[in-house]
Amino acid sequence: MDLTPFLNRDSKIPLYQQLIKFFKSNMHDGRIKKGMKLPSKRHLAKKLLISQTTVERAYDQLLAEGYILSKPRSGLFADYDESFLIHPDPKPAELPVQNFNGTTNEIIDFHYGHVDSSFFPLSAWRKNVVASLDKYSEKLCRPGDVLGEIELRTLITEYLYQSRGVNCEPNQIIIGSSTSYLLQMLCHILNTSLKVGFEEPGYPRSREIFELNRKEIIPLPLDSEGLKMDAVKKNIPDLIYITPSHQYPLGRIMTINRRLELLKWAADNHSFIIEDDYDGEFRHSGQPIPSLQALDKENRVIYLGTFSNSFLPTLRISYMILPRSLLKKATQITSLFKQTVSSINQFALAEFIQNGEWQKHLNRMRKLYRKKRKIILEAVKRELGDKVKIHGENSGPRILIDVYLELSEQELIQKAENHGVKVYPVSDSYKKGYAFNTMSLGFSGVSEEEIKRGIYLLNKSWDLK
Protein backbone atom coordinates (compact mmCIF):
# COMPACT_ATOMS: atom_id res chain seq x y z
CA MET A 1 0.00 0.00 0.00
CA ASP A 2 1.17 3.51 -0.82
CA LEU A 3 -0.05 5.22 2.36
CA THR A 4 0.36 8.91 3.13
CA PRO A 5 -0.15 9.64 6.84
CA PHE A 6 -0.23 13.36 7.54
CA LEU A 7 1.95 14.11 10.55
CA ASN A 8 1.74 17.26 12.61
CA ARG A 9 5.31 18.15 13.49
CA ASP A 10 4.15 21.01 15.75
CA SER A 11 2.09 18.67 17.92
CA LYS A 12 3.21 17.60 21.40
CA ILE A 13 2.24 14.02 20.44
CA PRO A 14 5.35 12.13 19.30
CA LEU A 15 5.47 11.24 15.60
CA TYR A 16 5.55 7.48 16.23
CA GLN A 17 2.34 7.77 18.29
CA GLN A 18 0.69 9.75 15.48
CA LEU A 19 1.62 6.90 13.13
CA ILE A 20 0.13 4.32 15.49
CA LYS A 21 -3.10 6.32 15.72
CA PHE A 22 -3.26 6.64 11.92
CA PHE A 23 -2.94 2.90 11.32
CA LYS A 24 -5.39 1.93 14.08
CA SER A 25 -7.99 4.45 12.91
CA ASN A 26 -7.81 3.26 9.30
CA MET A 27 -8.06 -0.38 10.35
CA HIS A 28 -11.09 0.33 12.56
CA ASP A 29 -12.79 2.13 9.67
CA GLY A 30 -12.05 -0.68 7.24
CA ARG A 31 -9.83 1.44 4.99
CA ILE A 32 -6.86 -0.82 5.74
CA LYS A 33 -8.24 -4.32 5.48
CA LYS A 34 -6.88 -7.55 6.86
CA GLY A 35 -4.18 -9.00 4.61
CA MET A 36 -3.09 -5.71 3.04
CA LYS A 37 0.67 -5.28 2.81
CA LEU A 38 2.07 -2.22 4.59
CA PRO A 39 4.93 -0.03 3.31
CA SER A 40 8.40 -1.09 4.40
CA LYS A 41 10.04 0.85 7.23
CA ARG A 42 12.62 2.32 4.88
CA HIS A 43 10.06 3.30 2.23
CA LEU A 44 7.67 4.96 4.69
CA ALA A 45 10.48 6.82 6.48
CA LYS A 46 11.80 8.15 3.17
CA LYS A 47 8.35 9.23 2.01
CA LEU A 48 7.46 11.03 5.25
CA LEU A 49 10.95 12.51 5.73
CA ILE A 50 11.26 11.00 9.20
CA SER A 51 13.77 8.63 10.74
CA GLN A 52 13.44 4.90 10.18
CA THR A 53 13.60 4.47 13.97
CA THR A 54 10.31 6.42 14.32
CA VAL A 55 8.56 4.08 11.86
CA GLU A 56 10.10 1.03 13.57
CA ARG A 57 8.77 2.10 17.00
CA ALA A 58 5.26 2.49 15.56
CA TYR A 59 5.34 -0.89 13.78
CA ASP A 60 6.73 -2.63 16.91
CA GLN A 61 3.80 -1.33 18.98
CA LEU A 62 1.25 -2.44 16.34
CA LEU A 63 2.91 -5.88 16.26
CA ALA A 64 2.72 -6.14 20.03
CA GLU A 65 -0.98 -5.28 20.05
CA GLY A 66 -1.80 -7.72 17.23
CA TYR A 67 -2.81 -5.14 14.64
CA ILE A 68 -0.16 -6.30 12.16
CA LEU A 69 1.95 -9.39 11.60
CA SER A 70 5.36 -9.98 10.08
CA LYS A 71 5.96 -12.62 7.44
CA PRO A 72 9.61 -13.58 6.88
CA ARG A 73 10.98 -12.41 3.53
CA SER A 74 7.50 -11.01 2.65
CA GLY A 75 6.99 -7.96 4.85
CA LEU A 76 4.38 -6.54 7.23
CA PHE A 77 0.63 -7.14 6.79
CA ALA A 78 -2.52 -5.82 8.44
CA ASP A 79 -4.02 -8.48 10.74
CA TYR A 80 -7.04 -6.61 12.09
CA ASP A 81 -10.55 -7.63 10.97
CA GLU A 82 -12.82 -4.57 11.23
CA SER A 83 -15.92 -6.77 10.92
CA PHE A 84 -15.38 -7.89 14.54
CA LEU A 85 -15.72 -4.31 15.77
CA ILE A 86 -18.94 -3.70 17.67
CA HIS A 87 -20.30 -0.45 16.29
CA PRO A 88 -21.97 1.72 18.96
CA ASP A 89 -24.79 2.95 16.67
CA PRO A 90 -25.75 0.15 14.32
CA LYS A 91 -28.07 1.09 11.48
CA PRO A 92 -31.48 -0.47 12.05
CA ALA A 93 -32.35 -3.12 9.52
CA GLU A 94 -35.05 -2.14 7.08
CA LEU A 95 -38.22 -4.13 7.50
CA PRO A 96 -39.32 -6.12 4.47
CA VAL A 97 -42.48 -5.01 2.75
CA GLN A 98 -45.42 -7.40 2.99
CA ASN A 99 -47.66 -7.74 -0.04
CA PHE A 100 -51.21 -9.01 -0.14
CA ASN A 101 -50.03 -12.61 -0.73
CA GLY A 102 -47.98 -12.51 2.45
CA THR A 103 -44.60 -12.68 0.69
CA THR A 104 -41.78 -10.18 1.09
CA ASN A 105 -40.78 -7.79 -1.67
CA GLU A 106 -38.64 -4.75 -2.27
CA ILE A 107 -40.12 -1.29 -2.74
CA ILE A 108 -42.30 -0.99 -5.84
CA ASP A 109 -40.98 2.16 -7.48
CA PHE A 110 -43.24 3.92 -10.01
CA HIS A 111 -40.41 6.21 -11.09
CA TYR A 112 -40.72 7.62 -14.58
CA GLY A 113 -37.55 6.86 -16.52
CA HIS A 114 -36.55 3.47 -15.11
CA VAL A 115 -36.06 0.52 -17.47
CA ASP A 116 -37.33 -3.02 -16.90
CA SER A 117 -34.02 -4.93 -16.87
CA SER A 118 -35.71 -8.22 -17.80
CA PHE A 119 -36.53 -6.80 -21.26
CA PHE A 120 -33.22 -5.06 -21.98
CA PRO A 121 -31.46 -6.68 -25.01
CA LEU A 122 -28.21 -7.27 -23.12
CA SER A 123 -26.92 -10.03 -25.38
CA ALA A 124 -27.44 -8.00 -28.57
CA TRP A 125 -25.93 -4.90 -26.95
CA ARG A 126 -22.85 -6.82 -25.77
CA LYS A 127 -22.38 -8.25 -29.27
CA ASN A 128 -22.52 -4.79 -30.87
CA VAL A 129 -20.16 -3.28 -28.29
CA VAL A 130 -17.55 -5.93 -29.12
CA ALA A 131 -18.13 -5.49 -32.86
CA SER A 132 -17.71 -1.72 -32.60
CA LEU A 133 -14.39 -2.10 -30.75
CA ASP A 134 -13.05 -4.14 -33.66
CA LYS A 135 -14.57 -1.96 -36.36
CA TYR A 136 -13.53 1.44 -34.98
CA SER A 137 -10.31 0.49 -33.12
CA GLU A 138 -8.19 3.10 -34.95
CA LYS A 139 -10.65 5.94 -34.29
CA LEU A 140 -10.73 5.10 -30.57
CA CYS A 141 -7.06 6.04 -30.28
CA ARG A 142 -7.57 9.70 -31.11
CA PRO A 143 -9.91 12.45 -29.90
CA GLY A 144 -13.40 12.19 -31.36
CA ASP A 145 -15.45 14.82 -33.16
CA VAL A 146 -16.55 17.55 -30.74
CA LEU A 147 -20.06 17.45 -32.22
CA GLY A 148 -20.25 13.66 -31.88
CA GLU A 149 -19.14 10.76 -34.04
CA ILE A 150 -20.35 11.24 -37.63
CA GLU A 151 -21.42 7.58 -37.89
CA LEU A 152 -23.95 8.01 -35.07
CA ARG A 153 -25.11 11.47 -36.18
CA THR A 154 -25.77 10.15 -39.70
CA LEU A 155 -27.88 7.27 -38.39
CA ILE A 156 -29.81 9.59 -36.04
CA THR A 157 -30.58 11.80 -39.05
CA GLU A 158 -32.00 8.86 -40.99
CA TYR A 159 -33.95 7.47 -38.04
CA LEU A 160 -35.58 10.79 -37.11
CA TYR A 161 -36.63 11.48 -40.68
CA GLN A 162 -38.31 8.07 -40.94
CA SER A 163 -39.92 8.06 -37.50
CA ARG A 164 -40.65 11.72 -36.68
CA GLY A 165 -40.36 13.53 -40.02
CA VAL A 166 -37.40 15.59 -38.77
CA ASN A 167 -35.47 17.30 -41.59
CA CYS A 168 -31.78 17.88 -40.89
CA GLU A 169 -28.24 17.02 -41.91
CA PRO A 170 -25.68 15.27 -39.68
CA ASN A 171 -23.70 18.51 -39.20
CA GLN A 172 -26.75 20.06 -37.49
CA ILE A 173 -26.65 17.46 -34.70
CA ILE A 174 -24.72 17.86 -31.45
CA ILE A 175 -24.33 14.77 -29.24
CA GLY A 176 -24.27 15.37 -25.47
CA SER A 177 -24.40 13.44 -22.22
CA SER A 178 -27.86 14.73 -21.24
CA THR A 179 -30.60 17.15 -22.18
CA SER A 180 -29.51 19.34 -19.27
CA TYR A 181 -25.98 19.56 -20.66
CA LEU A 182 -27.26 20.44 -24.14
CA LEU A 183 -29.49 23.18 -22.73
CA GLN A 184 -26.47 24.55 -20.90
CA MET A 185 -24.58 24.59 -24.19
CA LEU A 186 -27.52 26.30 -25.87
CA CYS A 187 -27.46 29.10 -23.29
CA HIS A 188 -23.84 29.77 -24.30
CA ILE A 189 -24.62 29.50 -28.01
CA LEU A 190 -27.45 32.06 -27.84
CA ASN A 191 -25.51 34.18 -25.33
CA THR A 192 -28.13 36.87 -24.78
CA SER A 193 -30.39 38.08 -22.00
CA LEU A 194 -33.12 35.72 -23.07
CA LYS A 195 -36.75 35.85 -22.06
CA VAL A 196 -37.63 32.14 -21.98
CA GLY A 197 -41.28 31.19 -22.33
CA PHE A 198 -41.80 27.99 -20.35
CA GLU A 199 -44.78 25.66 -20.10
CA GLU A 200 -46.72 26.02 -16.85
CA PRO A 201 -46.45 23.31 -15.62
CA GLY A 202 -43.22 22.20 -17.25
CA TYR A 203 -40.12 20.05 -16.82
CA PRO A 204 -38.48 21.42 -13.64
CA ARG A 205 -34.90 20.43 -14.39
CA SER A 206 -34.87 22.28 -17.71
CA ARG A 207 -36.43 25.35 -16.12
CA GLU A 208 -33.74 25.32 -13.42
CA ILE A 209 -30.98 25.16 -16.08
CA PHE A 210 -32.30 28.39 -17.59
CA GLU A 211 -32.62 29.99 -14.15
CA LEU A 212 -29.07 28.94 -13.32
CA ASN A 213 -27.97 30.82 -16.44
CA ARG A 214 -29.91 33.90 -15.28
CA LYS A 215 -32.55 33.75 -17.98
CA GLU A 216 -35.92 35.35 -17.30
CA ILE A 217 -38.58 32.63 -17.07
CA ILE A 218 -42.07 33.50 -18.32
CA PRO A 219 -44.67 30.88 -17.31
CA LEU A 220 -46.99 30.12 -20.24
CA PRO A 221 -50.29 28.40 -19.36
CA LEU A 222 -51.79 25.47 -21.27
CA ASP A 223 -55.21 24.47 -22.50
CA SER A 224 -56.52 21.25 -24.08
CA GLU A 225 -54.77 22.07 -27.40
CA GLY A 226 -51.39 22.96 -25.93
CA LEU A 227 -49.62 26.25 -25.26
CA LYS A 228 -52.03 29.22 -24.99
CA MET A 229 -51.14 31.59 -27.81
CA ASP A 230 -52.61 34.69 -26.17
CA ALA A 231 -49.99 34.41 -23.40
CA VAL A 232 -47.25 33.91 -26.00
CA LYS A 233 -48.33 36.98 -28.00
CA LYS A 234 -48.61 39.08 -24.86
CA ASN A 235 -45.10 38.31 -23.51
CA ILE A 236 -43.18 37.84 -26.80
CA PRO A 237 -40.40 35.57 -25.41
CA ASP A 238 -37.11 35.19 -27.29
CA LEU A 239 -37.12 31.45 -26.74
CA ILE A 240 -39.94 28.98 -25.94
CA TYR A 241 -39.37 25.57 -24.36
CA ILE A 242 -42.14 23.02 -25.00
CA THR A 243 -42.81 19.27 -24.95
CA PRO A 244 -45.55 19.10 -27.62
CA SER A 245 -45.68 15.34 -28.30
CA HIS A 246 -46.21 14.39 -24.64
CA GLN A 247 -46.43 17.48 -22.48
CA TYR A 248 -44.46 17.14 -19.27
CA PRO A 249 -46.04 16.45 -16.83
CA LEU A 250 -49.69 16.54 -17.94
CA GLY A 251 -49.28 14.21 -20.91
CA ARG A 252 -51.27 16.35 -23.37
CA ILE A 253 -50.51 16.34 -27.09
CA MET A 254 -50.36 19.68 -28.90
CA THR A 255 -52.82 19.78 -31.80
CA ILE A 256 -51.65 20.29 -35.36
CA ASN A 257 -53.44 23.66 -35.62
CA ARG A 258 -51.75 24.96 -32.46
CA ARG A 259 -48.37 23.78 -33.74
CA LEU A 260 -48.78 25.66 -37.01
CA GLU A 261 -49.97 28.79 -35.18
CA LEU A 262 -46.95 28.68 -32.87
CA LEU A 263 -44.53 28.21 -35.78
CA LYS A 264 -46.00 31.19 -37.64
CA TRP A 265 -45.69 33.35 -34.54
CA ALA A 266 -42.02 32.29 -34.06
CA ALA A 267 -41.19 33.15 -37.67
CA ASP A 268 -42.94 36.54 -37.47
CA ASN A 269 -41.16 37.44 -34.21
CA HIS A 270 -37.73 35.92 -34.97
CA SER A 271 -37.98 33.72 -31.87
CA PHE A 272 -36.68 30.18 -31.43
CA ILE A 273 -38.65 27.19 -30.15
CA ILE A 274 -37.06 24.30 -28.26
CA GLU A 275 -38.97 21.10 -29.00
CA ASP A 276 -38.06 18.53 -26.34
CA ASP A 277 -39.23 15.24 -27.86
CA TYR A 278 -38.10 13.23 -24.84
CA ASP A 279 -40.30 10.17 -25.48
CA GLY A 280 -41.74 10.79 -28.93
CA GLU A 281 -41.24 7.10 -29.79
CA PHE A 282 -44.12 6.02 -27.56
CA ARG A 283 -47.65 7.01 -28.52
CA HIS A 284 -50.49 4.70 -27.46
CA SER A 285 -53.57 6.02 -29.26
CA GLY A 286 -54.70 8.38 -32.02
CA GLN A 287 -53.06 9.28 -35.31
CA PRO A 288 -49.31 10.07 -35.30
CA ILE A 289 -48.56 13.79 -35.33
CA PRO A 290 -45.29 14.93 -36.98
CA SER A 291 -42.72 16.65 -34.85
CA LEU A 292 -42.81 20.43 -34.66
CA GLN A 293 -39.42 20.50 -36.41
CA ALA A 294 -40.88 18.58 -39.35
CA LEU A 295 -43.47 21.34 -39.86
CA ASP A 296 -40.95 24.17 -39.52
CA LYS A 297 -40.18 25.93 -42.83
CA GLU A 298 -38.37 28.95 -41.35
CA ASN A 299 -35.64 27.24 -39.26
CA ARG A 300 -36.98 28.39 -35.90
CA VAL A 301 -37.06 24.99 -34.08
CA ILE A 302 -34.28 23.54 -31.93
CA TYR A 303 -34.99 19.81 -31.53
CA LEU A 304 -33.95 17.78 -28.47
CA GLY A 305 -34.02 13.98 -28.18
CA THR A 306 -32.55 11.31 -25.92
CA PHE A 307 -31.85 7.58 -25.78
CA SER A 308 -32.32 7.56 -21.99
CA ASN A 309 -36.08 6.95 -22.00
CA SER A 310 -36.27 4.67 -25.02
CA PHE A 311 -33.13 2.58 -24.46
CA LEU A 312 -30.88 2.93 -21.43
CA PRO A 313 -30.62 5.81 -18.90
CA THR A 314 -27.01 5.02 -17.97
CA LEU A 315 -25.86 5.21 -21.60
CA ARG A 316 -26.01 9.02 -21.26
CA ILE A 317 -26.57 9.87 -24.94
CA SER A 318 -28.82 12.76 -25.94
CA TYR A 319 -28.77 14.98 -29.02
CA MET A 320 -29.72 18.48 -30.17
CA ILE A 321 -30.56 19.55 -33.72
CA LEU A 322 -29.85 23.21 -34.42
CA PRO A 323 -31.08 25.55 -37.14
CA ARG A 324 -28.30 26.33 -39.63
CA SER A 325 -28.09 29.93 -38.44
CA LEU A 326 -26.70 28.74 -35.09
CA LEU A 327 -24.15 26.22 -36.38
CA LYS A 328 -21.09 28.50 -36.57
CA LYS A 329 -21.43 29.68 -32.96
CA ALA A 330 -22.32 26.14 -31.81
CA THR A 331 -19.11 24.71 -33.30
CA GLN A 332 -17.03 27.35 -31.50
CA ILE A 333 -18.69 26.60 -28.15
CA THR A 334 -18.54 22.81 -28.45
CA SER A 335 -14.85 23.04 -29.37
CA LEU A 336 -14.24 24.63 -25.96
CA PHE A 337 -16.19 22.04 -23.98
CA LYS A 338 -15.17 18.98 -26.05
CA GLN A 339 -17.41 15.93 -26.42
CA THR A 340 -18.99 14.60 -23.22
CA VAL A 341 -20.07 11.16 -24.50
CA SER A 342 -17.56 8.34 -24.78
CA SER A 343 -16.72 7.49 -28.40
CA ILE A 344 -16.94 3.82 -27.44
CA ASN A 345 -20.61 4.21 -26.51
CA GLN A 346 -21.32 6.28 -29.61
CA PHE A 347 -19.80 3.68 -31.93
CA ALA A 348 -21.57 0.84 -30.10
CA LEU A 349 -24.93 2.59 -30.44
CA ALA A 350 -24.26 3.29 -34.12
CA GLU A 351 -23.54 -0.41 -34.66
CA PHE A 352 -26.69 -1.32 -32.71
CA ILE A 353 -28.82 0.94 -34.93
CA GLN A 354 -27.07 -0.09 -38.16
CA ASN A 355 -27.70 -3.79 -37.51
CA GLY A 356 -31.43 -3.27 -36.95
CA GLU A 357 -31.33 -4.08 -33.24
CA TRP A 358 -32.53 -0.60 -32.28
CA GLN A 359 -35.74 -0.91 -34.30
CA LYS A 360 -36.35 -4.41 -32.91
CA HIS A 361 -35.94 -3.05 -29.38
CA LEU A 362 -38.33 -0.16 -30.00
CA ASN A 363 -40.97 -2.50 -31.43
CA ARG A 364 -40.69 -4.74 -28.37
CA MET A 365 -40.91 -1.78 -26.00
CA ARG A 366 -43.96 -0.33 -27.73
CA LYS A 367 -45.75 -3.65 -27.47
CA LEU A 368 -44.68 -4.07 -23.84
CA TYR A 369 -45.71 -0.54 -22.83
CA ARG A 370 -49.12 -0.91 -24.46
CA LYS A 371 -49.65 -4.05 -22.41
CA LYS A 372 -48.42 -2.45 -19.18
CA ARG A 373 -50.56 0.61 -19.86
CA LYS A 374 -53.65 -1.57 -20.16
CA ILE A 375 -52.78 -3.36 -16.91
CA ILE A 376 -52.19 -0.18 -14.90
CA LEU A 377 -55.35 1.52 -16.19
CA GLU A 378 -57.44 -1.52 -15.29
CA ALA A 379 -55.79 -1.78 -11.86
CA VAL A 380 -56.32 1.90 -11.06
CA LYS A 381 -59.99 1.76 -12.07
CA ARG A 382 -60.51 -1.45 -10.10
CA GLU A 383 -58.63 -0.51 -6.92
CA LEU A 384 -58.87 3.28 -6.71
CA GLY A 385 -62.22 3.83 -8.46
CA ASP A 386 -63.82 7.25 -8.43
CA LYS A 387 -61.41 8.54 -5.77
CA VAL A 388 -58.96 9.37 -8.53
CA LYS A 389 -59.04 10.78 -12.06
CA ILE A 390 -56.67 9.42 -14.71
CA HIS A 391 -55.04 11.58 -17.38
CA GLY A 392 -51.91 11.74 -19.54
CA GLU A 393 -52.34 8.09 -20.56
CA ASN A 394 -52.15 8.46 -24.35
CA SER A 395 -48.38 8.77 -24.70
CA GLY A 396 -45.26 7.65 -22.88
CA PRO A 397 -44.79 4.98 -20.18
CA ARG A 398 -46.57 6.93 -17.43
CA ILE A 399 -49.99 7.99 -16.20
CA LEU A 400 -51.09 10.74 -13.83
CA ILE A 401 -53.81 10.43 -11.20
CA ASP A 402 -55.58 13.27 -9.41
CA VAL A 403 -56.32 11.98 -5.90
CA TYR A 404 -59.58 13.21 -4.35
CA LEU A 405 -58.75 12.78 -0.67
CA GLU A 406 -58.31 15.24 2.17
CA LEU A 407 -54.62 14.42 2.47
CA SER A 408 -51.65 16.58 1.63
CA GLU A 409 -49.27 15.68 -1.15
CA GLN A 410 -46.59 14.61 1.30
CA GLU A 411 -49.08 12.56 3.33
CA LEU A 412 -50.08 10.64 0.20
CA ILE A 413 -46.43 9.97 -0.68
CA GLN A 414 -45.49 8.93 2.86
CA LYS A 415 -48.50 6.65 3.35
CA ALA A 416 -47.71 4.93 0.06
CA GLU A 417 -44.06 4.48 0.99
CA ASN A 418 -45.06 3.02 4.37
CA HIS A 419 -46.80 0.28 2.39
CA GLY A 420 -43.86 -0.31 0.08
CA VAL A 421 -44.79 1.89 -2.88
CA LYS A 422 -43.03 4.99 -4.23
CA VAL A 423 -45.11 7.52 -6.16
CA TYR A 424 -44.08 10.98 -7.31
CA PRO A 425 -45.75 14.40 -7.22
CA VAL A 426 -46.04 16.86 -10.09
CA SER A 427 -46.05 19.97 -7.89
CA ASP A 428 -42.39 20.72 -8.62
CA SER A 429 -43.36 21.20 -12.28
CA TYR A 430 -45.20 24.40 -11.40
CA LYS A 431 -43.40 27.69 -10.99
CA LYS A 432 -46.54 29.32 -9.55
CA GLY A 433 -49.09 27.95 -7.08
CA TYR A 434 -50.50 24.45 -7.38
CA ALA A 435 -53.84 23.33 -5.94
CA PHE A 436 -54.33 19.60 -6.70
CA ASN A 437 -52.83 16.36 -5.40
CA THR A 438 -51.58 14.75 -8.59
CA MET A 439 -49.31 11.70 -8.55
CA SER A 440 -47.13 10.39 -11.37
CA LEU A 441 -47.04 6.62 -11.90
CA GLY A 442 -44.31 5.52 -14.31
CA PHE A 443 -44.64 1.90 -15.38
CA SER A 444 -41.62 1.33 -17.63
CA GLY A 445 -39.40 -0.06 -14.86
CA VAL A 446 -41.91 -2.25 -12.98
CA SER A 447 -43.15 -5.70 -13.93
CA GLU A 448 -46.77 -6.48 -14.72
CA GLU A 449 -47.26 -8.22 -11.36
CA GLU A 450 -45.62 -5.31 -9.54
CA ILE A 451 -48.04 -2.92 -11.23
CA LYS A 452 -51.05 -4.87 -9.96
CA ARG A 453 -49.58 -5.28 -6.48
CA GLY A 454 -48.47 -1.65 -6.31
CA ILE A 455 -51.91 -0.27 -7.12
CA TYR A 456 -53.48 -2.67 -4.62
CA LEU A 457 -51.09 -1.37 -1.94
CA LEU A 458 -51.93 2.23 -2.86
CA ASN A 459 -55.56 1.39 -2.14
CA LYS A 460 -54.58 0.04 1.26
CA SER A 461 -52.20 2.88 2.09
CA TRP A 462 -54.71 5.61 1.23
CA ASP A 463 -57.55 3.67 2.86
CA LEU A 464 -59.83 3.95 -0.16
CA LYS A 465 -63.25 2.29 0.19
UniProtKB/TrEMBL annotation:
It comes from the Bacteria. PROSITE patterns: HTH_GNTR. The keyword Glycoprotein does not apply. It holds the Pfam family Aminotran_1_2. Its cofactor is pyridoxal 5'-phosphate. SUPFAM superfamilies: PLP-dependent transferases, Winged helix' DNA-binding domain. SMART domains: HTH_GNTR. Residues 13-81 form the HTH gntR-type domain. Keywords: Aminotransferase, DNA-binding, Pyridoxal phosphate, Transcription, Transcription regulation, Transferase. GO terms for molecular function: transaminase activity. Coiled coil: none annotated. In the C-terminal section; belongs to the class-I pyridoxal-phosphate-dependent aminotransferase family. This is GntR family transcriptional regulator/MocR family aminotransferase. It comes from Fictibacillus barbaricus.
